[in-house]
């Protein structure tokens, strides 16, 4: 709908995708050990400004998912696609489920985070890969 | 504290009116409300107006003054935005102003024009109610977000697509007599189950339509209503708002609506009533699962049992406590900025006896409206009571 300048980074968010791509995923945590994602300067749970990165657990558990058939124009060529929320302990986040048929996706499966390219726009998209065995993660 | 009276209500038909601008829609709704209230336009002290998508759908910001102009009112005006709760936010603000004694007569309303957008662009525009960085860029659409909640609900409490289908069937049945409803046609459970999937487990008939429309209210102080001998038997006696993190994955629960619970508790407390006293309710049913989550969070149903309320007849037109007698967002339609105001207009009409479904709630004295923004990162609840 609206045109934006190309390649303007989003502080915090793009840094986090870079970290996933570099195999060094992290989350942010406060002195009370609440977990949250960037770009946040204070803990949304307790308001503490004592914020530090910590290593993200390697795998998460898929908590819920949906197969989206009717997409926005920015995901037109990706549809139908699976979107899920996975729990990594201190944080949850949302991503595309890749390399797995929609029929085979189930709540409780173990996933690891990854970054893929949207088939529609080529933009980076946060994704989940299924870990069938210990060799993948 | 001054009591807040609903002196006038006005609604346009909800439906596909791509050619109608929001200023034109609001002109109609506000004229009806002012006529219904029988107040002088010169007595209106301020216009409080809700709208969500104006910049995206009409390239129009700064809509407050535009809408005062459309209403023929020379008064200060401002726009309120809270995603799909944009129509309740100005009502809540108006209630506070009248209670404080700051104002005696306010024109409150909302409008949305949506069907001039393509379905794809409307889907994209609505998705701006979710977290752009962490949800929309991961492929979350609005139906997708509610689908994530629906599957989490099934996994936590049980339930099925079939039980959800009864919510849609019920609300379509309620809209049959509501001539302003977007959809006035009965549907069967099989229609819902066989409809194309939009975002599994939700299909086309689990979703409210994309609609155009406007709603307006004239709210006055009790003293103004009495001095001017207004026919204003219904009062807004409770208001409450609850908030939550914007992104669904940041919430404590994926299958509950804590923001609705907080809004409901505050509104009940404010009105001095309990959930048991609610005779009839209009709740936010943008998707079938949304109605289930709402009635549970409002304590109208126990947690985990809201899913069966429509199927078992507890919330149907002849049930103990009908929910969404207007047809709800599902069948009446959901022009997002108008919805919250329209819920109050429908409830006021039901309570004063001039709604097509009033006969089903003849003895009702206490009612509730619930309007949600985004995936319920905002919830606004109002209690209405017959006072005169
Ligand atoms: Zn904290």
Automatic annotation (TrEMBL), chain A:
It comes from the Archaea. InterPro entries: ChsH2_C, NA-bd_OB-fold, Thioester_dehydratase-like. Residues 55-114 form the ChsH2 C-terminal OB-fold domain. SUPFAM superfamilies: Nucleic acid-binding proteins. This is Zn-ribbon domain-containing OB-fold protein. It comes from Natribaculum luteum.
Automatic annotation (TrEMBL), chain B:
Signal peptide: none annotated. Residues 241-385 form the Thiolase C-terminal domain. The keyword Ribonucleoprotein does not apply. InterPro entries: Thiolase (IPR002155), Thiolase-like (IPR016039), Thiolase_C_2 (IPR055140), Thiolase_N (IPR020616). Residues 6-223 form the Thiolase N-terminal domain. GO terms for biological process: isoprenoid biosynthetic process. Keywords: Isoprene biosynthesis. This is Thiolase domain-containing protein. It comes from Natribaculum luteum.
């Amino acid at each position: 709908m609206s045109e934006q300048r190309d390649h303007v980074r989003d502080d915090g968010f793009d840094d986090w995708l870079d970290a996933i791509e570099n195999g060094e995923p992290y989350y942010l945590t406060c002195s009370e050990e609440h977990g949250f994602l960037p770009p946040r300067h204070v803990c949304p749970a307790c308001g503490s400004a004592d914020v530090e990165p910590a290593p993200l657990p390697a795998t998460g558990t898929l908590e819920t998912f949906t197969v989206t058939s009717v997409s926005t124009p920015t995901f037109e060529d990706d549809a139908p696609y699976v979107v899920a929320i996975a729990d990594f302990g201190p944080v949850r986040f949302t991503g595309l489920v890749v390399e797995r048929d929609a029929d085979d996706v189930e709540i409780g499966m173990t996933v690891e985070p990854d970054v893929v390219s949207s088939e529609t726009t080529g933009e980076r998209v946060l994704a989940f890969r299924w870990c069938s065995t210990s060799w993948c993660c | 504290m001054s009591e807040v009276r609903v002196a006038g209500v006005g609604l346009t038909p909800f439906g596909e009116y791509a050619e109608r601008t929001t200023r034109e829609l609001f002109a109609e709704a506000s004229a009806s409300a002012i006529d219904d209230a029988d107040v002088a336009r010169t007595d209106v002290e301020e216009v409080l107006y809700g709208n969500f998508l104006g910049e995206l759908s009409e390239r129009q910001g700064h809509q407050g003054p535009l809408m005062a102009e459309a209403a023929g009112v020379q008064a200060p005006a401002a726009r309120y935005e809270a995603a799909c709760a944009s129509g309740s936010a100005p009502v809540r603000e108006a209630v506070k102003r009248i209670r404080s004694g700051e104002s005696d007569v306010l024109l409150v309303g909302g409008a949305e024009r949506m069907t001039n957008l393509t379905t794809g662009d409307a889907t994209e525009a609505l998705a701006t109610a979710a977290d752009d960085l962490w949800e929309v860029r991961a492929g979350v659409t609005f139906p997708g977000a509610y689908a994530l909640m629906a599957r989490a609900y099934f996994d936590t409490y049980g339930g099925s697509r079939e039980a959800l289908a009864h919510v849609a069937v019920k609300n379509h049945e309620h809209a049959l007599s509501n001539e302003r409803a977007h959809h006035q046609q009965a549907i069967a459970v099989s229609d819902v189950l066989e409809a194309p999937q939009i975002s599994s487990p939700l299909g086309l008939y689990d979703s409210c339509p994309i609609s155009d429309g406007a709603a307006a209210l004239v709210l006055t102080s009790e003293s103004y209503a009495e001095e001017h001998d207004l026919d204003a038997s219904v009062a807004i006696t409770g208001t409450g708002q609850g908030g939550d993190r914007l992104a669904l994955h940041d919430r404590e629960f994926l299958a509950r609506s804590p923001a609705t619970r907080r809004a409901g508790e505050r509104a009940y407390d404010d009105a001095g009533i309990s959930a048991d006293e609610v005779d009839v309710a209009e709740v936010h049913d943008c998707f079938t699962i949304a109605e289930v989550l709402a009635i549970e969070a409002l304590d109208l149903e126990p947690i985990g049992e809201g899913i069966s309320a429509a199927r078992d007849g507890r919330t149907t037109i002849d049930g103990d406590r009908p929910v969404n007698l207007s047809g709800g967002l599902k069948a009446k339609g959901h022009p997002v900025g108008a919805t919250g105001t329209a819920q109050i207009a429908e409830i006021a009409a039901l309570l004063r006896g001039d709604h097509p479904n009033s006969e089903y709630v003849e003895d009702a004295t206490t009612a509730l409206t619930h309007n949600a923004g985004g995936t319920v990162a905002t919830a606004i609840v109002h209690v209405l009571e017959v006072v005169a």
